[in-house]
Amino acid sequence: MARTTPHHHPLTEGEPLYRRIATELLGELRDGVIPPGERLPGERRLAEHFEVSRETVRQALQVLRRDGLLATDRRGSHATLPGRPVEAPAWSGFPLGARCAGRGAVARATVAWEAPPSGHAEALGVAPARPTLVHRYWSASADGRELRAAVTSFSAVALAEVEELGRYRDRADGTGAAELRRAYDWMRRAGLTLHHRDTITRIAGAPSVRVIRRVHDQHARPLEITELVMDAQEDVLVYEFTVPAAV
């Protein structure tokens, strides 16, 4: 849920609060904050998001189900509005929109359970030398020229709250392939609102730039930090933005 400002619920006379929440939730569905087909956060997270009780959320969801805007199965409720399928990433791919550039390009990604690189531990609030999940990505053009090299460290919060990331701990030996392309979507599905700050600097004496991304959630808890070095002459960094619902 991508809202970054508090909710206020001025009611018209006689309007139940749950109907107002249903209207606001419908607005977020229509604005793409919750993509069609994506599973909604649980009642507790929705109650925190809208700053109301779980019973109010439950009644609001029932209104949307009755109108055919939500469907519920054993996995929970999901949006049924027409639009792009949920498989289309809502954010640029991880890490930082990494993708093979050009025909014949190659890429490799691995994960390891190890101490994060220098500077990552402090940004994540991790004790020095304490291991965490570290993701490494590398890509090169068909002629062998390195295009991108990235390293990402995840926080304890991300591993505890994002089930898909937590599963990697037992098989993060640094050798097997790792597909974390949808890491940001996993975080959103876990009910985390993602805020990121990217710093881009030129590397002296080289045709490259360094991008450092810091991601935190709606409670200002750090989730991950990524450091990416890319060849600015051979590769293109693309940013995609999802506009949050209007307040």
Topology:
Elements: H1 17-30, H2 43-50, H3 54-66, E1 70-73, E2 76-79, E3 106-114, H4 120-124, E4 132-140, E5 146-154, H5 156-161, H6 163-166, E6 173-177, H7 183-189, E7 195-202, E8 208-216, E9 222-231
Antiparallel strand pairs: 1-2, 3-4, 3-6, 4-5, 5-9, 7-8, 8-9
What features would you describe in this structure?
The chain is α+β, with helices and mostly antiparallel strands and 247 residues long. Helix content is 23%, strand content 27%. The chain has seven helices and nine strands. The strands form two sheets. The chain has a seven-stranded antiparallel β-sheet. It is elongated and about 65 Å long. The two termini are 13 Å apart. The relative contact order is 0.16. Residues 1-6, 82-92 and 243-247 have low confidence and may be disordered.
Kindly summarize this structure in a few lines:
The protein is an alpha+beta fold and 247 residues long. It has helices at residues 17-30, 43-50, 54-66, 120-124, 156-161, 163-166, 183-189; strands spanning 70-73, 76-79, 106-114, 132-140, 146-154, 173-177, 195-202, 208-216, 222-231. It holds the Pfam family GntR.
Mean pLDDT: 75
Low-pLDDT stretches = 1-6, 82-92, 243-247
Strand order of the largest sheet: 6-3-4-5-9-8-7
Order of helices and strands: HHHEEEHEEHHEHEEE
From the helix content, strand content and strand pairing, which structural class follows?
alpha+beta
Q: Which radius of gyration do the C-alpha atoms yield?
A: 20 Å
Please provide the count of β strands: 9
Strand content: 25-35%
Shape: elongated
Helix content: 10-25%
Main β sheet profile = 7 strands, antiparallel
